[in-house]
Design brief:
The complex is a heterodimer of chains A (213) and B (275). Chain A is α/β, with parallel strands linked by helices and 213 residues long. Chain A is built from 6 helices and 10 strands. Helix content of chain A is 32%, strand content 30%. The chains are: A alpha/beta (213), B mainly alpha (275).
Chain lengths: 213, 275
């Protein structure tokens, strides 16, 4: 997968949330986004996910323009902001319902993904009884279960304990090895440096290359 | 083609919500008043009578007559607004929660909005089923029959002598007290949902209320609320609103909503309701 963001600017109301962003991203790599709250990291992820469209400029996924040639990237997993699920269903059932939309994976893969993120697939508790950390793990499971070519993870380590953070790091490396293009936003500088191939600094809607890792 | 799956998601998440428990309470109020009128006038009120009273509305008001200026069909407004309120925020709520995962997986904004339009029609249908079930339960509890037929004498008392016809058939009761109000409310609800793409939900709700209020004082078939008022129906009074015109108007507005909504949603930002 290849993503080209070309001179993308996004204005919402009177605020310019992304300013003239140009990036070229390739599969099999992890791109880290670093920046203060409100700097535009999440907006950049939404732009790549097709949830918002640039006011000017364009986003191309494998040469096809997002918003005109396609509404959303064809193979995408995402965890943007807080994970949201149907509170009256179990974690397994929630993932089953999401997976049924694409019908690409079966129950065995869903169970395997839940185990991979440290959740018990046989847990009969409903999601509303889950702790914040468990919801976060379930959000990561939802993002990775279909083995997407594009993975957007916004603050994936929120509410996770050390073991959980380690688990996320392992998952990121495995997904990269599989060939996924991963965009990771994180306040944890150590994690970002450990996992990312390239780090971009986002400030006031502008995106700059920080350093090679 | 993910439309059936999207519709299934909307039915699972948006059809039977806790606030639906309010519907029987809202429907029981006009039924109880109808029962009191029937007891006072000394006639038996059945299911059809209760439904006709629920969606009676108000006779055409001469706005030049100052004595009539303050009249409002409160119960009718409550019942119609109840459905509009229940359907108000589901679309945006869904979009800021699980709906984001759903829409991205579906890969198609147009199908997602069409699914919401279908949900809207079904949700209004559920509302009317609950209202009519409440009326049926009221009829059973008060010893009335479970027929939709309505005697002309009873209907003339309920509708304050505004009805021109004799005994009203089950089909007429069904059309006047369920089908036409359903069509009208579904159209208003869809219009409200479509406007939510460009305006805040509370403003859209207020606009719907303004349409209903205008319809109270202006008995033109072109003003949507008139179709939902039994007392103004052309099926019951010669000078009433033509039901075919109401149906045509509703279908046209629904189609326009679907077309405008899909076009607008195609370029909308999905950033969660709170933002």
């Amino acid at each position: 997968m290849k993503i080209d963001i070309i001179n993308a600017t996004k204005t919402i109301g009177k605020a310019t949330v992304l300013k003239d962003v140009t990036l070229s991203l390739e599969g099999g790599r992890i791109y880290g986004l670093r920046g203060p709250n409100g700097s535009g990291k999440t907006m950049l992820m939404r732009l790549v996910a097709g949830l918002i469209q640039p006011t000017s400029g364009e986003v191309k996924i494998d040469g096809k323009r997002l918003g005109t040639d396609m509404d959303f990237p064809p193979s995408i997993g995402m965890l943007i902001e807080n994970p949201a699920f149907l509170p009256n269903y179990t974690g397994l059932k929630n993932l089953e319902l999401l997976a049924s939309l694409k019908n690409e994976i079966g129950i065995d893969q869903i169970r395997e993904t839940l185990t991979r993120v440290g959740l018990d697939p046989d847990d009969k508790r409903r999601v509303r009884k889950y702790s914040l950390g468990m919801k976060q793990r379930l959000g990561i499971a939802a993002a990775i279960m279909e083995k997407p070519k594009l993975l957007l993870l916004d603050e994936p380590t929120n509410a996770l304990d050390d073991k959980g953070i380690r688990c996320v790091c392992d998952i990121l490396h495995e997904e990269r090895k599989r060939g996924a293009l991963i965009i990771l936003s994180c306040h944890d500088g150590d994690l970002l440096r450990e996992c990312s191939d390239k780090i971009f600094k986002v400030q006031n809607g502008r995106v700059e290359r920080e350093n090679a890792v | 083609m993910n439309l059936p799956k999207l519709i299934r998601h909307d039915l699972r998440c948006g059809l039977l919500r806790p606030r639906c428990l309010l519907i029987p309470i809202m429907a029981a109020l006009p039924c109880w008043l109808c029962h009191k009128i029937a007891v006072t006038a000394g006639f038996d009120c059945g299911w059809g009578g209760y439904l006709m009273y629920c969606f009676m509305g108000i006779e055409p008001i001469d706005i030049l007559d100052t004595m009539e200026k303050t009249q409002l069909p409160i119960l009718w407004l409550l019942l119609i607004s109840g459905c509009l309120y229940l359907n108000l925020d589901y679309m945006l709520d869904d979009l800021s929660l699980t709906g984001q995962q759903i829409i991205v997986r579906s890969g198609n904004r147009r199908e997602w909005f069409i699914s919401k339009c279908i949900w809207n029609l079904l949700s209004c249908g559920v509302y009317f089923i609950i209202v009519s079930t409440t009326a049926a339960a009221f009829s059973i509890l008060t010893g009335g029959d479970l027929s939709l037929r309505c005697e002309s004498a009873a209907l003339n008392i309920l509708y304050r002598g505004e009805v021109d016809t004799g005994t009203v058939s089950s089909f007429t009761v069904l059309a006047v007290s369920l089908l036409l109000p359903y069509l009208t409310v579904s159209t208003l609800s869809l219009l409200q949902m479509t406007l939510c793409l460009v305006l805040k939900p509370i403003l859209c709700f207020l606009l719907s209320e303004i349409v209903l209020l205008v319809s109270v004082y202006w008995s033109s078939p072109l003003i949507l609320g008139n179709g939902a008022m039994g007392i103004r129906s052309g099926l019951l009074t010669a000078s009433g609103v033509d039901p075919l015109m109401v149906c045509g108007e509703c279908v046209v507005i629904m189609l326009l909503c679907a077309v405008f909504g899909t076009w607008e949603f195609k370029r909308s930002n999905i950033i969660g309701a709170k933002e």
